[in-house]
Write a structure and sequence with these properties.
Number of domains of chain A: 1
Strand content of chain B: under 5%
Radius of gyration of chain B: 23 Å
Number of helices of chain B: 2
Largest interface: A-B, 47 and 35 residues
Largest sheet of chain A: 5 strands, parallel
Largest sheet of chain B: none
Strand content of chain A: 15-25%
Strand order of the largest sheet of chain A: 2-1-3-4-5
Order of helices and strands of chain A: EHEHEHEHEHEHH
Number of strands of chain A: 6
Shape of chain A: globular
Order of helices and strands of chain B: EHH
CATH architecture of chain A: 3-Layer(aba) Sandwich
Radius of gyration of chain A: 16 Å
Oligomer: heterodimer
CATH superfamily of chain A: Toll/interleukin-1 receptor homology (TIR) domain
Chain lengths: 193, 73
């Protein structure tokens, strides 16, 4: 297990792009290294590899804000995020000293309805905004030394957004939701610190 | 132990801030990718420092700020 690694469980789609960048930049500013399932191929072993990835991380961040049906037929809700949250909760329950998770949502009290098994828990509400993501990450993770401020994290987020076209041009990725683009984004955020 | 998630509480991070190269190691980035990302990040740092200097100078002018340097006749 790596004490700096965070399993990032978020939707991979265009509408979520700004929050996705905000999570990666925010976590990197806090001295943490995000990891995601983007590099894990499909198939039978995928579930095992996702669970291995969760186990290798000291923390996990789960975003449950995508509760609507997607447009692609047949219209379906996305179950991956709550499913992977369930895996992390089970792992943390068995190993409370080795794993800690935080759960984010965009709208207050919605998760208490969509995931009533966790009713009574507090969720980190980011209001669907990068600023909200930074604020909630700072609320959830407190560094004892070199603590970043939310304005500094937002400046870094804006800088990274400006650099993204050059980064994408160089790595040849079609979208940010590819393993290589994800790694480059984390690396760029770390070098820009 | 009931407490397993943050749930409104904060996690204290006590590990030292990793360097960018340590993050790159953890990601398994090649030397070429590190070099590109590091150079790309440093261009932003230069631009941001020039921009911040410009902003400071403009702000000083707008405030009628005069240089503290003594004039030597």
């Amino acid at each position: 297990m790596n004490n700096d690694r965070v399993f990032l469980n978020v939707p991979y789609d265009r509408q979520f792009k700004n929050l996705y960048i905000a999570y990666i930049v925010g976590l990197t500013e806090l001295g943490l290294t995000p990891t995601a399932t983007l590099a894990i191929p499909g198939g039978e072993a995928r579930l095992d590899r996702i669970f291995d990835l969760i186990q290798s991380c000291r923390y996990s961040v789960h975003d449950l804000s995508r509760v609507t049906l997607d447009r692609k037929p047949p219209p379906t809700p996305r179950f991956n995020m709550p499913f992977e949250l369930g895996m992390a909760v089970a792992w943390a329950k068995q190993n409370p000293d080795r794993h800690t998770y935080i759960v984010c949502e965009a709208v207050k009290r919605r998760a208490q309805k969509s995931l009533s098994d966790m009713a009574g828990s507090d969720f980190n509400i980011h209001d669907n905004a990068p600023l909200g993501v930074m604020r909630e990450l700072c609320n959830a993770f407190v560094r004892q030394e070199e603590r970043p401020t939310v304005p500094r994290m937002m400046r870094r987020y804006e800088t990274i957004c400006k650099l993204l076209p050059k980064m994408m041009q160089q790595n040849g990725s079609q979208t940010l939701f590819e393993a290589r683009a994800f790694e480059d984004l984390v690396g760029l955020a770390a070098y820009a610190r | 132990m009931d407490y397993i998630g943050v749930m409104g509480m904060s996690v204290q991070i006590t590990t030292p801030m990793p360097s960018a190269d340590e993050v790159a190691d953890s990601l398994g980035l090649s030397k070429a990718r590190r070099k590109f990302l590091s150079e790309l990040a440093s261009t932003a740092k230069v631009h941001s420092s020039i921009k911040s200097r410009r902003i400071t100078t403009t702000a000083q002018k707008s405030l009628g700020h005069k240089s503290n340097a003594k004039k030597v006749y």
